[in-house]
Amino acid sequence: ETNVRFTVSWYYRMPTRSDEMVEYELLATMDADWTLVLREKSKQRAQNGEIIFSKPKIDTFRLRIQWTSETDRGEYYCVISSWSRQRNNSWIRIKDVASMPVSILWSTQDYTLTVEAVKLKPFFMAGHTFEMTCKVSSQNIKTPRYSVLITAMKSLSDRTRSNGTTRIISLNQDSVVRREDWTDQD
Q: Pick the residue with more confidence: 88 or 157?
């Protein structure tokens, strides 16, 4: 068995303005026996598998954040502590070495969603077929999923519903079509 062991502590600091000082927050520690002690900030996400602390090699410790979000932006660093075995088999910390901080930053861009409705047939009267398309486009949405609700506005003379709008048909994110509160009498 080796006479030197390593432990690690991971720290996080949220991004700040240059004139603002914010302390680093301890996320977790892992000892040489792989015992992981989670702090409040990382506990729930680690239990959900979103934050993974691991030790792939005897001298390598890893922090992995899956599905990063705005709250993960900031600086991260680790402190490796080396421990030496004493003659009585106890362990004493001999040195702490901190890494340089690693930044997780990205530019934030507003999400944009545009919908365009186009009537396909220019002429419409009772008894004819009405057809329209709705085209959606998005920017800065990684994997968009859309749902659609088609409504009809009642004319001012025919306001049988309180708001004058009738929900006709919907399409959810799983492509399930549902007939809403529209009937042939509407």
A: 88
